Amino acid sequence: MDYKIDLGGWNSVFAVPGELVDRHIKLAGAAQLKVILWFLRYAGREFSVSDISGALSMQEADVRDCLQYWAQTGLITISENIITPAPQEAEPKQAASGMSAAASLQTETAAARVSEIPVSEERPDAPYETTASEPSKKRALSRPEKPDTKYLVKRMSDDPSIAYLMQTADDIFGRITSNNDKATLLLIHEHDGLPVEVIIMLLQYAANIGKCNMRYIEKMAISWAEEEITSLALAEKKIDRLTSGRNCAMIVQRTIGLEEHSPTEKEMEFADLWINQWKFTADMIREAYERCVDAKGKYIPKYTSSVLERWYHAGITTVEQARNEKLQNRKSKPTGGSGGAYDIDLFESTSVIDEEW
Known about the structure:
The protein is an all-alpha fold. It has three domains: 12-99, Orthogonal Bundle (Arc Repressor Mutant, subunit A); 103-230, no CATH class; 258-350, no CATH class. It is built from 16 helices and two strands. The chain has helices at 18-24, 30-41, 49-56, 60-73, 110-115, 149-158, 160-173, 179-190, 196-208, 214-226, 232-256, 265-277, 282-296, 301-314, 319-332, 344-350; strands at residues 76-79, 82-85. The longest helix is centred in the C-terminal third of the chain and has 25 residues, at 232-256. It is elongated and about 115 Å long. The N and C termini lie far apart (92 Å).
């Protein structure tokens, strides 16, 4: 009688190098791990990049990046399309481009992400501390000096909080961020002085408003650095103000019948001023808007704001009061044009505010 051992799913067990777990599992992303496991599973067989791409539902360019990553970490060598284990005596090299496939971790909120930021291995007894107290360097936004990939990988290897930032950025954006994007995030941290947890809050806000463009994020980060927003408490307050400003801007858009769009910084500033600070109702904003169009033939936010500001200082809080003021002014004007009375009609038709903002 013949016997055989049936281990079920374990019948096809394959070896995984201990170095992969001991040295690389903390830094390697999901894509890199998928590729190396697939490669180990089918060791000894011939395969192409397209085979891996089809099996893992990945782009071929990403597969090549992942293979190159493992080659440059020193786990494998690639020569003339032959992949072999790297010599044991070889020193692990730093990856040059594979970090473009960092992990896409599933977490729920920015606060949860921040609470999970690991402590730097260089200072195991101290929590992550920012260098934000040091003056941030000013740089031209159009020509940022970004760190190269070699330095990026070294920082990710040396400081777990930097690696976590890069992984979390992928998670927030729902995509694999490029090396260039990662370099920008590192620049924001090291050059502009924003702590990792503050950058994560900024990324989450940008994703929530649908602006995951790294150029926009970099510009906002520079602004935060100039405002010295270097703690979670300050970041939360800033986001609250921005969120409130966006909500107010949307109210203004609906009130005056503008096409719905993502508001600009100036639009949010005006809307916040009119609604949150001056406490004007939608009816009052609509009245000021109509006077602006009557006088200038188009909507000019700065002009509209000048009308509201006059009402604010005059204590005018209702449309009825605003219209009565205008009516009383007309009645009190001397016959023949200008006189001693304050001419509201003249103000609203000849205001020097002609620029759009």
